[in-house]
Design goal:
By secondary structure, this protein is of the alpha+beta class. It is built from five helices and 17 strands. Helix 1 (about 45-55) crosses helix 2. It binds pyrrole-2-carboxylate (PYC).
């Protein structure tokens, strides 16, 4: 018997891959364990996410780590919703753990559900661990998401970080956009593709400094308030954009899309400073030159309700095979580069 002929059957995960403005999403539609088993009163997607993280982390690892995935890939497990009227629940994850929510991933999920004819043009409710979100599918296939309420948490945080053999002073804000972000446009680095290595290295230094100084968001929100996304902003290259960003994700990869939760956090900061009015477009360019168009409505308690519009394309319909005798069935355990 060789490595691919063996008695035990593989676990099969049915998936659909897509990319949203360049950033990949892998939607897992079948083959996952029942996360509701053992859950009694709280059958929310947040409770199911805890079960996934505590008991079935193999699924995340098998679906997004090498050799089946990569550090850039975001997974989206479709689960039963607890909210009345929701089309589905979804739990997002990446190479290092679970995400509270994910903007590009929600756009990818919407394109996937449309591809499967599970949703048509119109507005649909989904449930994420961070709360309910809406997806609006236009007849042309474009997707707008209504993200979770977003807000500026701390303004003008100054950090001195070791960078390039010296100390770099960086000023920025801490904001919630469905994930926790440190956002800065006063960082001294060109936001260009040629400088991705420099942007990555500065972002990592900033994340380390935030952790070392105990700077967090509000612990009542995702991951105990840990700031795991860094967003560095600069002038746009495109005439039809307002700014370009570089977003370092928790596992060390950078977002190829303009980052839906990052765009929401950026709008919350601008709104809090009086620099962006409700309804006005915020056109966010990504480091690869793709674009999301955002806008917001005023929410409760000084929060904004962000809307982010983008496009996603289906790239594969497939089944992942997880053979019991494959030594790398649950992914390669390479040290996180974050
Ligand atoms: O679009 O919100 C987003 C996102 C988070 C991490 C990668 N993409």
């Amino acid at each position: 018997m060789n490595a691919i002929e063996h008695a035990a059957s593989p676990v099969r995960l049915t998936i659909i891959d897509s990319h949203t403005e360049g950033e990949p999403t892998r939607v897992v539609l079948g083959g996952a364990p029942d996360l509701l088993e053992g859950l009694r009163d709280d059958r929310s997607v947040a409770a199911q996410a805890r079960v996934l993280g505590e008991r079935h982390d193999w699924l995340r690892r098998a679906a997004v780590l090498e050799p089946r995935g990569s550090d850039v890939l975001v997974g989206a497990l479709v689960v039963p919703p607890s909210l009345a009227g929701a089309v589905c629940g979804v739990i997002f994850f990446n190479n290092v753990g679970l995400l509270n929510t994910c903007g590009h991933g929600t756009i990818g999920l919407a394109a996937t559900l449309a591809h499967l004819c599970r949703i048509g043009a119109g507005t649909h409710l989904i449930e994420t661990p961070a709360g309910p979100m809406k997806i609006m599918l236009d007849p042309g296939g474009g997707v707008t998401i209504e993200n979770v309420p977003s807000f500026l948490h701390a303004m003008d945080v100054t950090l001195d970080v070791p960078f390039g053999g010296t100390t770099r002073r960086v000023r920025g804000d801490v904001a919630w956009g469905g994930n926790w972000f440190f956002l800065s446009h006063e960082h001294g680095e060109p936001v260009t593709q040629e400088n991705i290595a420099g942007l990555t290295s500065l972002s990592r230094a900033l994340r380390r400094e935030l952790a070392a100084r105990g700077v967090t968001g509000d612990a009542a929100f995702g991951h105990g308030g840990m700031i795991d996304h860094i967003e560095l902003t600069g002038p746009p290259s495109r005439a039809d954009c307002d700014a370009k960003n570089f977003v370092l994700c928790p596992g060390g990869a950078f977002d190829r899309s303009p980052c839906g939760t990052g765009t929401s956090a950026a709008m919350a900061c601008r709104a809090a400073r009086g620099l962006l009015a409700p309804g006005a477009p915020w056109r966010q360019e990504s480091i690869i030159g793709s674009r999301f168009v955002g806008r917001y409505e005023a929410g409760h308690n000084g929060r904004i309700v962000p809307f982010v519009q983008g496009r996603a394309w289906i790239t594969a319909e497939s089944t992942l095979l997880i053979h019991p005798n494959d030594p790398y069935r649950h992914g390669l355990s390479l040290p996180a580069q974050g």
